[in-house]
Write a structure and sequence with these properties.
Phosphorylase Kinase, domain 1; Transferase(Phosphotransferase), domain 1; two-stranded antiparallel sheet; 13 helices; globular; EKC/KEOPS complex subunit BUD32; ATP binding; kinase; Prot_kinase_dom; Kinase-like_dom_sf
């Protein structure tokens, strides 16, 4: 099959869905930024032609590959099911796929296949976690914490630490924003809960989560896979989306409601991220051996706890000023309490990050009747939302001036309502003036 031909032929023969978009520029090999004609919304188009079709050696024919059989753009397709799963405000959503024919002058045309994805125009979180300038040496990675301090609750930073510029990196409001955004995405992947809303009486209601959901583990939560968008109104921060599903694992092995089995034989287990497949019985055996050890052992199964810890490491990396190119690895080299103890953030945020690193809903602790993994991620998300509410009421300058997306959206609604009211009043006055002329 011929190599990919850059799209610049104004007379290319599109398929119907391709007519919706304008191709803007190729931002990396096989990745195009495109614009939807109807509203100028920008997306990413990924050329998957070589994944859809493969050459048949010794012939001029092409055969549909594994991805082609999954999407089957020109036949039966699982595309709608995939879109339903990967459609969430905090996930890089799969929008659709289309095919188009591209030709050069005097040459045979080739059909190219594209998948369309969300586009985050502010890059990824990893771009923010780099040193501002070269350092003579890295931070000392040796732990400086006493064993008896393991269960000590973290406090707000003292007044002296507030004067230290190095005791705080990214704004606390941004840390909460990323934390709640990624937890909301994980609540969908883990529990099938789309969102939480708080009623007037203070009770929380889950949206979704009532169907027979197959838990999914992302298995690649890193700063480079958390994508950012610019704000669209007056809000401080734009949407945050978790992306890159190359290691995503769909598990049919989970603990259903009322299941009294031992935790290790009923919780969601997946192979380590660097492995494609491990027999379930081996995963159970390794989980029985290792449990939730941290750092993770080479053959230790990947679980929801692994996802919590990956997110906890990232939030720590947002709070500690980077001093080297391997910033996240430096964070991993020390206990969370050591990384956070002298930072100028609220104790509420620091304690929640510590909980992410230590929380295990399957652990049968003293005084705990049985493991409680049901909607565990959703409960963490709810607790984080309560943390944001608490932070907004702290009265510090950052919290007082913060404009959330919900606040900006409500302001837009009020402005539009006032504009509509003014227009209606002007129309009424015009009608009155016209009627006055006929008196």
């Amino acid at each position: 099959m011929a190599s990919t031909i850059p799209f610049h032929d104004a007379y290319a023969d599109f398929h119907d869905d391709a007519l919706k978009y304008d191709f803007i520029t190729e931002i990396s090999p096989k990745i195009w930024k495109i614009s939807r004609k109807s509203d100028r919304m920008e997306f990413l188009a990924h050329d998957i032609t070589n994944e859809i079709y493969t050459d048949v050696p010794g012939t001029a024919f092409m055969m549909r590959g594994a991805l082609g059989n999954l999407l089957s753009i020109d036949g039966e397709s699982l595309e709608e099911q995939i879109k339903a799963i990967l459609k969430h405000p905090n996930l890089m959503s799969f929008v659709e796929s289309f095919a188009m024919e591209i030709t050069y002058e005097g040459q045979r045309g080739y059909q190219y296949a594209f998948t369309v994805w969300d586009y985050c125009d502010a890059g990824n979180l990893g771009n923010l976690l780099i040193p501002s300038q070269p350092r003579p040496q890295d931070r000392d990675a040796s732990p400086d914490i006493k064993p008896e301090d393991d269960d000590t609750e973290m406090k707000d930073a003292s007044g002296e630490s507030e004067k230290q510029e190095s005791s705080k990196f990214l704004p606390e409001s941004f840390c909460w924003h990323v934390l709640t955004s990624v937890l909301r995405a994980l609540a969908w992947l883990h529990d099938g809960v789309h969102d939480l809303i708080q009623k007037e009486n203070g009770a929380w209601q889950r949206l979704g989560g009532e169907v027979d959901w197959q838990p999914m583990l992302h298995r690649d939560i890193s700063p480079q896979n958390i994508f950012l968008s610019h704000p669209r109104r007056r809000e401080w921060y734009g949407p945050v989306k978790l992306g890159n599903y190359g290691r995503l694992f769909v598990s049919g092995h989970c603990q259903p409601f009322g299941d009294k089995q031992m935790p290790t034989s009923s919780k969601v287990l997946a192979p380590p991220p660097d492995k494609e497949f491990t027999p379930l019985q081996d995963l159970i055996a390794f989980d029985t051996k290792h449990g939730s050890l941290y750092p993770r052992q080479p053959n230790q199964p990947y679980t929801m706890v692994s996802e919590y810890r990956a997110l906890g490491e990232i939030i720590q990396a947002m709070m500690v000023e980077p001093t080297c190119s391997q910033h996240v690895k430096m964070i991993q080299a020390q206990p969370a309490r050591v990384n956070l103890q002298d930072l100028n953030y609220t104790g509420r945020l620091k304690n929640f990050v510590v909980k992410l690193m230590e929380f295990d809903p399957w652990h049968k602790a003293a005084g705990k009747r049985e493991p409680n993994p049901l909607h565990a991620t959703t409960e963490l998300y709810r607790e984080a939302l309560l943390g944001v509410q608490w932070f907004m009421d702290t009265g510090n300058d950052e919290a007082d001036n913060l404009v959330t997306p919900q606040m900006a959206e409500y302001e837009d609604f009020l402005d539009n309502s006032k504009l509509a009211g003014d227009q209606l009043f002007d129309s009424f006055k015009n009608v009155q003036e016209i009627l006055e002329q006929f008196k």
